[in-house]
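Many introductory courses stop at the sequence. We go one step further.
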Amino acid sequence: MLLRLLLPHSFWVLLVLGAGMEAAFFGLSQISDLRSGGRDLFFYFGCAFALYLVLVTYIRFLWSRSFFSPELIVTAAIVFRVTLLFSQPVLSDDVYRYVWDGRVANAGINPYQYSPDADNLIGLRDSTVYPLINHKEIPTIYPPVLQVVFRVVTVLSESVWAMKAAMILADFGTILTLLALLRFLGRAVGWVAVYAWNPLVVVEVAGSGHADAVYVFLLTLSIYFAIRARTLQAGFLLGLSFLTKFASILLLPFLEDIRSRFKTWALAAGVFAAVVLLVYWPFSTNQVSAFVALSAYLERWEFNSSVYGVVYRLLEEEMANDPNPHEWLGFWTDNKPRLVTKWISASVLMLTTVWMLWKQSRRPFQAQKEGLPHAAFILIGCTLVVSPTVHPWYVTWIVPLLCVVPNLAWILFTGLVFLSYDAAVQFADTGRWTEDRALVFWEYLPFYALLVGTLAWKAFKSLKAHPVEAS
C-alpha cells in the first residue's frame, strides 16, 4: 500500500529529502571551529546521512520501476556543494598544501624539491596559507597530475575557495560520467543519487576540497571508456588517474580481454606507461625525487585501519620476544611487525587481483566489459580493507561504483567512517592526536557484520538455486 501511494509522487519525495539534506549541509557550513562545533558536526552529518539512507532505500524499491527526471538530482547535488564551497575546511588542512604546491610551481620551483619549511622558499611564505600547511618538514606527496591541477588553479587564484571550486568541477564530471554509464548499461539513472547525494562525498569534496575528486573522475571516466570498448582512451585516462592515486594500476589488466585481444591490451598498457613517463619526466632530475614524501607516508602513516590494525597488533604480541627484531627475509626494519603486516596486506591485494583477473578472463567479451565496475569495486574495496590508513576521503573512491554495484554494507560505511573524525575533534580540543579504538570498533563492526551477512545470504541463495547433487 505504501509503495503504491508513493510511486506517483517520486518527485515530491525527492524534493523533501533534498530539502532536509540541504538544511543539514547548511548547518555543517556554519561550523568554523571544531572545539566548539564538534557535536554539531556529527549531528548535522548524521541527519544528512539518515535522509540519504532513506533515499537509497527509495531508489532500491521504487525508482527502478518509475519514471522521474534526473535533473532534480543533479540540481540538488550542485546546491549541496555550493552550500559548502565557502565554508572553512575545518576537517582537513590538505587544501592549503594544494595552494602552496601551486604557488611553488608557479614560482618556477619543482614542488618535490623542497619542503615548505626550507629556507629556499622563505620568499613564498604568507600569513594565510603557509601557517596552515601540515607536515611542513616533508616535501609534497601529491603526484604530478595533481601538481598540474594545483598550478593551473593558482594561476587564476591562490584562494582556498578557488581550489575547492576546481574539485567540485571534477566531482560534477564524475556525476555526468555516471549518468552516461548508467544509461549505457541500461540501468535506472536514479542510482546516480547514490554518488551525487552521498554526504561523505559532498563534505570531502565541497567542504574540505580533497583532490581525490580528480582521481575519482579520471578513474570513472576510464571505466566508462573501457566498457565502451575504447581501450586506448581508457588506458590514457587510467594513466592520468594513476598519477593522482597509485591504486589505479590494479585495474590495468582489466581494460581488455587479455586472451583474445592481447594486442589491444598491450597497446593500452603502452599508452598507460607512456602517460606515466611523460608526465613524471618534467618533475624528475638527478637532485629531485618525487617519491621522498611518498616513502615517508608509506613507512609512517597509519590511521583508522581495520584488518591491518588487527593483524599488526597480533604480530606485535607474537614477535615481542623475537630474537631477530630488526630483520625479516633479508630486509632491515626498525619495526618488524609493521613490515610483516604490510607484506601480508600487499600479498592479499595481489592475490585478490589475480583471482579477479582469472574470473574475468573466463567470461565472454561483453560480460567482461560490463563486469569491469564489479572488478573495480572488489579491488578498491580490498585496498581499503587492508590499508594501514583509511581517511574518510579515501572511502569516496568506491562510492561511484556503488551506483552500478549497489552494496548496502559499503553504503553504510560511507557514513560510519565519519566517526573517525573524532580524532580531529579531540586534537582541536587537546592538541593531541589520539585514536579511540573503541570508536574504531563500533565504526567497523556494523560494516563487517553486514558485509559478511550479505555474502552469506548470496551464497545461500546460489546454493538453493543450484543445489549440489548427491553422489
